[in-house]
Specification:
This protein is about 5% helix and about 45% strand. The chain is mainly beta. The chain has one domain: Jelly Rolls. The strands form 2 sheets. Strands 1, 2, 4, 7, 9 and 10 form a 6-stranded antiparallel sheet that branches. Strands 3-8-5-6 form a 4-stranded antiparallel sheet, with no helix packed on it. The N and C termini lie far apart (about 60 Å).
Length: about 180
């Protein structure tokens, strides 16, 4: 049997700090909390920092091509001006009568982002027919707000052809918004 040599405390400490395998006890690690991390290394981006979601089931109606709030809204406060916000929308839309369609817009505050999203195919049936769809329209927009202030995102809709009626959240069908802050 080979001889066993006992090492002093200094030798063990030196070996442990340079050649560790296995799991370290949390007490031996500085910055054991995610809140202690203040920055990512250079070149690291794309990390999800926070997720905010909201929904509404309150019905709104439009007989006009003028845009109106759908009632779907959520707030987020980015932690850095270089971060992006991924906006995910699932909007309930229904058409009643008339040869019409709806269009949807997404706003950050008073600024439209992503352009007009035509809901032409959502429930489009031509003259005089009603068509009710649950989650009828989904979209995603990657926004670069360049802000650390609290931001409000919302959707607006219209009745593009001013005929029939367009409803959102019809019969309490829910619409959803999810905001995801991504490290820039």
């Amino acid at each position: 049997m080979p001889a066993i040599t006992r090492l002093g405390t200094n030798a063990i400490t030196s070996v442990a700090s340079t050649a560790i395998s296995g799991t370290l006890p949390a007490a031996n690690i500085n910055d054991t909390s995610i809140s202690n991390i203040t920055a990512l290394p250079a070149g690291v981006g794309g990390k999800v920092l926070q997720v905010v979601s909201a929904y509404t089931q309150t019905q709104a109606t439009s007989n006009s091509s003028t845009y109106a709030d759908t009632g779907l809204t959520a707030n987020i406060t980015p932690s850095s001006t270089s971060n992006k916000i991924l906006v995910l929308i699932q909007q309930s839309v229904a058409k009643e009568g008339g040869n019409t369609k709806s269009e949807l817009r997404v706003y950050r505050g008073a600024t439209e982002i992503g352009g007009t999203i035509p809901a032409r195919g959502v429930g489009y049936t031509g003259e005089g027919t009603s068509n009710f769809i649950g989650i009828g329209l989904a979209c995603s927009i990657l926004d670069t707000p360049n802000s650390t202030s609290t931001l409000t995102y919302k959707t607006q809709f219209n009745n593009a052809d001013n005929t029939g009626t367009i409803r959102v959240q019809v019969d309490s069908g829910a619409s959803y918004i999810t905001l995801i802050e991504i490290a820039g």
